[in-house]
Design goal:
The protein is mainly β. It is built from no helices and 26 strands. It is globular.
């Protein structure tokens, strides 16, 4: 199973289709069904609904629009082209949730189609914006037109009926290859930029989703995957590697002040640089603590537990907004 989203007492979980191993040259399996989204009762764990969206690869990358009660999920690796599915979170009388629309990133025209994307990179994290009511989704690499080879962000409208839901705007962001997205307080979308191209460190960008203005953040070279907006400190945070390839160079928790947009500092997350890329993080809005998942012993010198050989959770204190005060508080063994 892949991504999860909690919605009013339910957990929405994405899943891959069943398949036969080693028959498909691209993914290692030949699908025997379609991908699904499962709705589970948060208290009992019972599957209340299974939504088949017709994907032939894993459903992944999700977000929720609480205003219009719409759940969005991407099938980033689908063949022949990736797509997103918009699903109503309001069940019918039988407890089923209907698919409102699917948008195919195949370069076609009309409300059911969007710019083609590079299938090798697919689609990445969507984020819902309460000001516009729309989704903003990271696209690592577009596949056609003037933007071919560059990544960016697409805005997907959620207003009106199904025909009105479409890709409304495209923001091309060169030298980024966006992965994660995190929305700040002033129309700012922090992009977790991977290295672009693969053998050259890229940049980290804050995109103004109202004007399209892009602000590069010196101090973080790219190599970021998941990102976060920390409301407690009013900072953007990124789990980033600073070397090429990803197994070389320091790995850091990058910190950027959201107002004004300004690089704050990097805290080491894998000082020994032993491999095992850091990419998952979260911040607690109430305590300001930041949690970074780290791989097990031999891959990260901060994970010292040896029996069992689990990874660990790095916990950073909020301190002040200055990076010198954002210290590593401790580690918790993963169970």
């Amino acid at each position: 199973m892949a991504s999860l989203q909690s919605i009013t007492g339910k957990i929405w979980v994405t899943d891959a289709p069943p398949g036969t191993p080693h028959l498909c040259p691209f993914t290692g399996f030949s699908p025997t069904g379609d991908s699904t989204i499962k709705v589970l009762d948060l208290r009992t764990g019972t599957v209340k609904d299974t939504i088949h969206n017709g994907g032939n690869h894993r459903a992944d990358e999700v977000a929720f629009d609480p205003r219009h009660q719409i759940f969005i999920v991407a099938n980033p690796a689908d063949e022949p082209f990736p797509f997103v599915t918009l699903i109503s979170t309001i069940p019918d009388a039988n407890g089923h949730h209907h698919i409102i629309k699917k948008i195919f990133f195949d370069g076609g025209h009309g409300p059911n189609h969007a710019l083609a994307v590079d299938p090798a990179n697919g689609l990445e994290q969507p984020t819902w914006d309460p000001r516009t009511g729309n989704f903003f989704m990271a696209v690592p690499s577009f596949g056609l037109g003037a933007a071919a080879g560059d990544g960016g962000v697409v805005e997907i409208t959620t207003h009106g009926d199904a025909d009105d839901m479409r890709v409304a705007r495209v923001f091309v962001v060169p030298d980024c290859t966006p992965q994660g997205t995190a929305l700040g307080p002033d129309d700012e979308l922090f992009l977790g930029c991977n290295a672009s191209p693969p053998d050259v460190a890229g940049r980290v960008v804050v995109l103004n989703i109202r004007t399209g203005a892009q602000t590069s953040i010196p101090g973080i070279k790219g190599g970021c995957d998941e990102v976060w907006f920390d409301k407690f400190s009013n900072h953007f945070l990124g789990a980033c590697h600073q070397g090429v390839p990803a197994t070389s160079g320091p790995q850091v928790l990058g910190s950027i002040d959201a107002d004004p947009i300004l690089f704050d500092g990097n805290a080491a997350t894998n000082p020994g640089n032993a491999g095992g890329r850091i990419h998952a993080l979260a911040a607690d809005d109430f305590t300001g603590r930041v949690f970074v998942a780290a791989p097990g012993p031999g891959k990260n010198t901060l994970c010292t537990n040896t029996s069992p050989p689990n990874g660990c959770l790095l916990i950073f204190t909020p301190g002040s907004l200055d990076s010198d005060d954002r210290s590593d508080e401790g580690r918790r063994n993963r169970r």
